[in-house]
Amino acid sequence: MTEQTQLLDPVATRAGEGEALWWVGGLAEIKVTGEQTGGLLSIIEITDPPNIEAPLHVHHREDEGFWILEGDATFEVGDTTIEAHAGDFVWGPRGVPHRYSTGDAGCRMLFVMTPGGFEDLVRGMSTPAQSRTLPPPSDEEPDWEHVAAVAKANGCELLQ
Fold first, then answer.
1. Could you say which of 57, 97, 116, 131 has the lowest number of CB atoms within 10 Å?
2. Domain CATH number, residue 151
3. How many whole angstroms separate alpha carbon 73 and alpha carbon 133?
4. Positive or negative: CA dihedral 63, 67, 71, 73
5. What is the DSSP secondary structure assignment for residue 39, as one 8-state letter?
6. How many CB atoms are located within 10 Å of the residue 17 CB?
7. How far apart are CA 68 and CA 101, in angstroms?
8. What is residue 120's three-state secondary structure?
9. Domain-embedded: residue 14
């Protein structure tokens, strides 16, 4: 048994609670932060529209789990392709390049990040959500230079 050196307060984030951000065309709701968990983990609920593709990237600090709540997504983790549906869980270890694309109905999933702190990357690339919905559609491409700089500052690297 390990001795816990820092006593943490319990955390409860209810449905419809948590910081809501519009993040690269989707809605990110921060459910628990690294600060709240003593650096152990972060959990972020992500709602993405249909048929989007996250860029190929790699995390140098954290492992990333994806728990599909609604919809479908296809993950490429290293050389492995995984079709995931509601109820499925996918693990992306740190240091392994990965990306995902959503299906025709979009996808709602939890990002489970260990250790915590990934919310800083999300905040750095986002704007406060005006509602807990997807952002209005836009024909503008994200500012990939800014996205890459925020990623790098937070231990991630865009690979495409």
1. 131
2. 2.60.120.10
3. 19
4. positive
5. T
6. 12
7. 12
8. helix
9. no
Locus of tokens 């593709």: 53
Mean pLDDT across the chain, nearest whole number? 94
Asked if residue 11 belongs to a domain, the reply is no
152 phi/psi in degrees, rounded to 5: -60, -40
Distance between CA 30 and CA 7 in Å, rounded?
A: 22
Q: Considering only the C-alpha atoms of the chain, give the largest distance between any 2 of them, rounded to a whole number of Å.
A: 54
Phi, psi of 7 (to 5 degrees): -80, 130
pLDDT in tens, 133-142: 999 988 888 8
H helical segments located in the chain: 119-125, 144-153
What range does the domain containing 110 cover?
19-129+144-158
